[in-house]
Design goal:
2 strands, Actin-binding Protein, T-fimbrin, domain 1, single chain, 53% helix, two-stranded antiparallel ribbon, Plastin-3, Recoverin, domain 1, mainly alpha, Fimbrin/Plastin, 3 domains
Length: 456
């Protein structure tokens, strides 16, 4: 059933399912549907809500076990796509978590198509860009943006902000001289947007089904999707052993550096957070969503309490030369109200200059994407790790071992043979594909991909 919808739609449905599955057990029950409609505060009489819930359970619960699995959840959206019940259901989900639906029409469907986007993401990304490009004179025509409006979707329309954000995430990806900044016309805007898309692809973003026209028109779900990839790449750039050898402090008993190198940035970030939580005497977390918002074995809400301990652990202690001590006020830790406690925590994060990406509501609701970005930003500014004195890293040996056993692009021997580089670059130029690359660095990324194909 799920195979009939796109991967993007499936991910949206998975997010929606998580918003309804309040206890996180992988199933939806009737009481969770009741809570969903109650929290959404839709202008509907009670009997109508009961009818909808009854219909959803009857139509969705295929195996009649009084609960709806994810596959059954997908079936609801497919089989009841144009019905009033399905529309009410989608509206309830959208209203619950600040998700806005953007309607459209499709030649293939009289019912039209609908894409949703998160107000929280729009707010977070707009604020992040406002801060990151605040001093950039080339962006003064669109900054600062009002994060509560659609300014963000209009700001990316000429491609300049996108190019700047790409360079912020991976410096020198784009030669600034190739960005059209003055006397912008429809033609130069198209050039900027193509430049941004090609460059985003070069640094690792997936830009399939995203065109220059989509960005120029500011299609919310596509703009947010691309921006998240660009921002995430920048946030994760230093969360790897080769860029930060102090990560060796996260090694566990019996592990080797090779084991640590196999971890993804997300896994390293989670291990880093748990490293500091353990040092604080606090229980570990398994993710940046459910474990932030839900309860642990003692039935004690963790959410911002875990963050309080993390902030207290990484805050500068004034022990290094030129370092000012910053004391975290833990008094808000005992606040019983979840939102108020989260706000107290964010006030302390602000003292570290790290109040980005999340609001108190995002913390309490356990927004996985924004909480991940929040923690990644904490790591980048205050890793609070010290490389073990007895841990000398032999990169030649490590990379050699990697090349011998793992077939991946990182295994390519350095430096690349000059003759081979000249041959590949010459071939690209002859085939008129060099225009797809914005800098020599981007071209070398392509060379590395070709090399990985040859070696692997």
């Amino acid at each position: 059933m799920a195979g009939k919808i796109s991967k993007e739609e499936l991910e949206e449905l998975r997010d929606a399912f998580g918003k309804v599955d309040l206890n996180g057990n992988g199933f939806i029950c009737d009481y969770e549907l009741h809570d969903l409609f109650k929290e959404a505060n839709l202008p509907m009489p009670g009997y109508k809500v009961r009818e909808i819930i009854q219909k959803l359970m009857e139509e969705g619960d295929k195996d009649k076990d009084n609960k709806i699995s994810f596959d059954e959840f997908v079936s609801i959206f497919q089989e009841l796509k144009s019905s009033d019940i399905a529309k009410s259901f989608r509206k309830a989900i959208n209203r619950k978590e600040g998700i806005l639906a953007i309607g459209g029409t499709s030649e293939l469907s009289s019912a039209g198509t609908q894409h949703s986007f998160s107000e929280e993401e729009r707010f977070a990304f707009a604020n992040w860009i406002n801060t990151a490009l605040e001093q950039d004179p080339d962006c003064k025509h669109v900054l600062p943006m009002n994060p509560n409006t659609d300014d963000l979707f209009k700001a990316v329309g000429d491609g300049i902000v996108l190019c700047k954000m790409i360079n912020l995430s991976v410096p020198d990806t784009i030669d600034e001289r190739t960005i059209n900044k003055k006397k912008v016309t429809a033609f130069t805007i198209q050039e900027n947007l193509n430049l941004a898309l090609n460059s985003a692809s070069a640094i690792g973003c997936h830009v399939v089904n995203i065109g220059a026209l989509d960005l120029r028109e500011g299609k919310p779900h596509l703009v947010l999707g691309l921006l998240w990839q660009i921002i995430k790449i920048g946030l994760f750039a230093d969360i790897e052993l080769s860029r930060n050898e102090a990560l060796a402090a996260l090694l566990r008993d019996g592990e080797t550096l090779e084991d640590l190198m196999k971890l993804s940035p997300e896994e390293l970030l989670l291990r880093w957070a748990n490293f500091h939580l353990e040092n604080a005497g606090w229980s570990k977390i398994n993710n940046f969503s459910h474990d932030i918002k839900l309860t642990d074995f003692s039935n004690c809400v963790k959410d911002s309490r875990a963050y309080f301990h993390l902030l207290n652990q990484i805050a500068p202690k004034g022990q290094k030369e030129g370092e000012d001590r910053i004391d975290i006020d833990m008094s808000g830790f005992s606040e019983n109200d979840d939102l108020k406690r989260a706000e107290c925590m964010l006030l302390q994060a602000d003292r570290l200059g790290c109040r980005q990406f999340v609001t108190s509501t995002d913390v309490v609701s356990g927004n996985p994407k924004l909480n991940l970005a929040f923690v990644a930003n904490l790591f980048n500014k205050y890793p609070a790790l010290t490389k073990p004195e007895n841990q000398d890293i032999n990169w030649g040996l490590l990379e050699g071992g990697c090349f011998a056993h793992d077939c991946c692009s990182c295994c390519i021997p350095e430096p690349l043979p000059i003759c081979l580089i000249d041959f590949i670059v010459s071939s690209i130029q002859k085939s008129r594909k060099l225009s797809s690359f914005t800098t020599i660095k981007s071209c070398l990324i392509f060379v590395r991909v070709v090399m990985s194909t040859c070696f692997c």
